[in-house]
Automatic annotation (TrEMBL):
Keyword RNA-binding: yes
Gene Ontology MF terms in the entry: RNA binding
Membrane-spanning segments: none
Protein name: S4 domain-containing protein YaaA
Keywords on record: RNA-binding
UniProt keyword Ion transport present: no
Gene from which this protein is expressed: yaaA
Xref: Pfam families: S4_2 (PF13275)
Length: 68
């Protein structure tokens, strides 16, 4: 599991996918989320604006990312 540090109180899911390198474009991140390819804390999430905070775990494409 990769640990990804954020410098703010929270980060939106679509921005996080770009931040950690899972998506190269915002539109790409949006499609992954809308196609139900992303899990947050073991639940499929289709809200691109979902606020993620420290301790949350994002799963995408067989990879897990923990926000620290």
């Amino acid at each position: 599991m990769d640990e990804i540090k954020i410098n703010t109180e929270f980060i939106k899911l679509d921005s996080f996918l770009k931040w950690c390198g899972a998506a190269s474009l915002g539109s790409e991140a949006k499609m992954y989320i809308l196609d139900e390819m992303v899990k947050v804390n073991d639940e499929v999430c289709t809200q691109r604006g979902k606020k993620l905070k420290q301790g949350d775990i994002v799963e995408f494409n067989g990879e897990k990312y923990k926000i620290i």
